[in-house]
Amino acid sequence: MAAKPALYFNCRAATLKGSGYGLIDDAALLVEGGRVAWVGPRAGLPHTASGATRHDLDGRLVTPALIDCHTHLVHGGNRAGEFEARLLGATYAEIARAGGGILATVAATRAASEAELLAAALRRVDALISEGVATIEIKSGYGLSRESELKMLRVARQIAAVRPVTVRTSYLAAHAVPPEFAGRADAYIDEVCIPALGAAEAEGLVDAVDGFCEGIAFSPAQIARLFSAARGLDLPVKLHAEQLSNLGGAALAARHGALSADHLEWLDDAGIAAMAAAGTVAVLLPGAFYTLRETKVPPVAALRAAGVPIALATDLNPGTSPLNSLLLAMNMACTLFRLTPQEALAGTTRNAAAALGLPDRGQIAPGLRADLAVWSVNHPAELSYQIGFNPLHARIFGGQP
Ligand code: DI6
Ligand code: FE
After folding, report:
1. 102 lines ligand 1 (CB under 6 A)
2. Does residue 318 line the site of ligand 1, with CB under 6 A?
3. Contact of 132 with 395, CB cutoff 8 Å
4. Which residues surround ligand 2, an ion (CB under 5 A)?
5. Nearest to 148 by CA among 95, 115, 106, 119
6. pTM score, two decimals?
7. Which ligand has the nearest atom to the CA of 217?
8. Using one digit for the tens of pLDDT, what is the confidence trace for 33-45?
9. Is the per-residue pLDDT at 1 higher than 70?
């Protein structure tokens, strides 16, 4: 028997439709079959709402549920020891020589079982869900072998089976060169990254393909080879680009029709123009900027002027962004990158959905998923303004409270 429609009323709705908040005061929302059936001023409510189950929200704010569009939340171990060593004076080079950095997490991830990786990941997922997140992107990239990359992606897929959340996976084997291929990045791309992508795709484990285009990682030419393989499998691409330098990664991503280019501290006008022409979303990651104590901020004003959609995410990873709060990421994006609170909310809803190629969410509109967050605040700006405070009252996932 179909569930009765649900009517939510006595609330303020930030629909994120159009370019602003899309605010509706004294709003009402009708939810049916997991989708939004109607949203608007309560005075305009259609008669079909009369038989719905009624939920009085006592004047609270309703937004689309949040979307964390860039995480590495499946991984083994943590890097707290490096964090302490750096504060005691160790350099990145000393830490890397001692086997630290990404490769430390690779070793821990390879050693962990699927069950161990899942248990650790669920704690991180639960923290995001508690802040009103309903869709999470999760990358591989700490396996760096066919077996371990597929293990990570299988764990990511299991999360959505045991939690009320949508998971979108990104294949990030091109994250770092593993020890067994030290100094042989091209061979690693051709002998592991590309063949393992085919295996992962055949198992239904991949929603998009990502890479780390950086001097300490992979060149534009190596990324281009991986992206050609991705497009051959009809998989969309995205890219960690211009985080620490400018290799033209964002323009490369845009030329491949990328869903997003991410980080972008060193993005230049050519990259911005290419992203604008391709409709590629700029995903800003203030957690890594903060953790690394970077000084070069992304060119937000130029991105705005070019009409490039701006999203933001936690980049939750054990090395450069152990940030498990999307609300705090929103505050950081405003304070560190000078995003407005409206841009920060759009960046974790409407534009984050675009960065994942998901047109069925990220706004409150008829026909879209009823993924909603109810907040005990009056104005949406309070979501970015507060530091370390979670005002979530309720989260609705696919119409289910
Ligand atoms: N950029 C980063 O900052 C992280 N990966 C990437 O592509 C670093 C990940 C780590 O240090 O574990
Ligand atoms: Fe990342």
Report:
1. yes
2. yes
3. yes
4. 315
5. 106
6. 0.98
7. 1
8. 999 999 999 999 9
9. no
